[in-house]
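Hi P.,

Sorry for the delay on this. The queue was packed all week, but I finally got your sequence through. Input first:
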Amino acid sequence: MTDAGTAAAATPVSVVTVVRNDRAGFLATRASLRAQGFRGFEWIVVAGTSSDGTDGAIADAVAAGEVAHHVRGVDGGPYRGMNQGADLAAGRFLLFLNAGDRLADADVLGRVAARLAAGGVDLLYGDHVADRHDGSARLVPALSPDSIASRMFASHQSILYAVWLLRRFGFDPQYAVAADYVLTLHALMGNIRVVGVPYAISRVAPAGISARQALRGRVEQARARRRILRHSLFRVTSIFLLQTAAWRLRCVLPGLYERIRRHRRV
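Then the structure:
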């Protein structure tokens, strides 16, 4: 990581972590970043008020020179914290890894940075590994960005956004769960350069807000389709019902869901 006091005008990537009362998750994210062979990135930590020792874990990382910016006492929800982190970024691209999320392997930031350096990119995405509560994990391939009208095609932890996209759009606080979808939708509606990479970028913690509040996320996505895309009520309702059916299938018959997704990209 770049030293906290180093000017980072040429920093390719700023990693933003939002955390509140999740010491174990923060430590997992920190270990993942420390393991990276590529060091040309900065780490921004935005912390809500915690009572479980998270503050001490952050203080250790700050003292070790690993944190470029540490914002304290942010309690307006994760997306508000992510906006604050983005505002501080010196990097040309932003990656949002919240507490408990990790990078897929020790070389991934180096590979990503090399592709970003080649140019022609405003948004870069890849697959992700989804951790399960039982300790197992599954690879989740990214879908086509062309499917953004009906779904989030990749996990936001595996999307690197050009910093100008965050400065223009940001995460809309009207959407408590689906703000990442809304940001990505706005970005893809413009004439931006989108690049996919054929590997996993992140490992996603199993208890993220999208998993905990899946129904609310689907409702917010539906509202965004009506407001931003001007979809008909019939189309919005049809997508919502298909998403709900897919979610139920994933809960009840996850093996079947994965086979269908691999072959039909549902």
